Amino acid sequence: MKKVLIIGGGGGGLILANHLDTNEFDVTIVDKSDLHFYQPWFLYIAFKGSKRKISRPIGELVRPGVNFVKDEITEINLDERKAYGSRKVVYNYDYIAIATGTSPDPDSIPGLRQIYDEYGDYHSNVYNSQKLWSHVKNFKGGTIAIGQASPTCKCPPSLLEGAFLLEERLRGMGMSVGTSDPLSPSNENDPTKTGEKGKSRIVFFTPFPRAYSAEPMNKVVEPMVKERGIEVMPFFDVDTIDVQNKTINSLEGDSLKYDLPIIVPPCKGPKIKFTPETVQDEERFIKADKNFMKIPGYDDAFAIGDCNTLPTSKTGVTAHLEAMTVSELIQGKYSEFNGRINCPFDTAYGKATFVIADYNNPVVPYPPTATKHFMKMSMARIYWMTLMGTADPIFERFFNITKPEKLNRKYSVPE
Amino acid sequence: MDVGIKIIDSRGAACPGPITDLARAYRNSKVGDIFEMWATDKGVKADTQAWATKTGNEILETREDPDKIVIRIKINKR
Ligand SMILES: Cc1cc2nc3c(=O)[nH]c(=O)nc-3n(C[C@H](O)[C@H](O)[C@H](O)COP(=O)(O)OP(=O)(O)OC[C@H]3O[C@@H](n4cnc5c(N)ncnc54)[C@H](O)[C@@H]3O)c2cc1C
Fold first, then answer.
1. CB of A270 closer than 6 A to ligand 1?
2. How far, in Å, from the CA of B19 to the mean position of ligand 1?
């Protein structure tokens, strides 16, 4: 029996494992953690104080016949087809799929580690999300600087989702949001700056040219950003943070004062030593071709999901679709990933939309509705089924009726 | 290929888009570096122009090949 070794039991790794025929393949998942987390819910822990349980044991999420081993892989030799675990355990394989997701790197930006430890964030883990919630719920007034430290991030909509949910929260707490000029955040005359009780500003900083990176979706959400008093600082890539003076400085030369910093740290690829080392880029992401997720030069090695360099968003949906393609390829069938993204985007106040595109079709300017919000919330319930493969027919149908070329014909306004 | 030119291949990137790769490369760059960006996303021209104006860097050339948009950028400020 051919051995398939999967590193990482996140969305990508589990979906791949659960779609391989265990009568034909000896399938093993290795994960350093016992638990799998439903990461999209970090948002609702951080901004709504949700106490929902969002983890399940990986061992309970695999189909019968799939092996699960708890171990941290530290080294992979692609030439010798060997992976090394923490206690010098050696895993041999015929096929390997690396699905290790991303790891937050708060140490690459001066000052960020202190912010990360003190305030948490809404991207890294449950603990950090709870920590952030304790600051949000006790916030009394002043400027909240919220955004991503660097352009490489999971789930592009989640950044602005954070700002939207925060605004809804602050108003729910009876606070005012916004009013002053976003370009002069250090304006001394600004009453909100000193943290006057009940008055707040939300400044959303982003390395991109606009509130939402992809222009067609920006057209949809920008009016909402303005209407809610959220200020935007574009082209703001965090360079340093002066914790003493509560100031964030950007690579592009701007600075932003804060009372409460909410900063999503840069994310990097896995801390695994590869042979050859050229398969990782400078941020440790694993190079893979964009249609077959094959690591260049190897027919038996794949990188799927957030850990790879594909020119698409790092989202659960892409991890899912990439895993489906790789399962077909390993089983000798033809399949190709077309870059499809489908990111749910909570615009708060009970509405949501989806960011839909693929390699050949631009993002659809898809308007937010209550129905889409209901769909996003339902996803949280059927998520576990999607990992097991039991929700495949629903997904196939959804992806089919929401193809970006179809939706663009309906929603895109010609230039 | 010219020596010393860093190719930024963003073909196919629609979301978050080519600026991701440009900003990543900028972080690790030094004055004098030249980037050549390849993209298919139509918005790349306007976005790169806005980025160059904001950061004080220079666009040397923009051209449309049949399969991609090519933009050369010189890093003057870092
Ligand atoms: C706030 C937020 C909101 C989001 N919202 C959405 C959404 O609405 N829709 C959507 O589709 N996506 C969303 N995402 C993105 C989605 O969660 C990720 O893209 C998805 O989890 C990626 O799956 P993955 O399998 O690549 O990695 P992960 O799910 O991160 O799994 C990686 C696994 O690898 C393991 N691992 C890492 N290193 C090693 C090692 N060395 N040895 C062994 N095991 C290792 C880890 O323990 C982990 O279990 C969101 C993310 C965040 C943070």
1. yes
2. 23
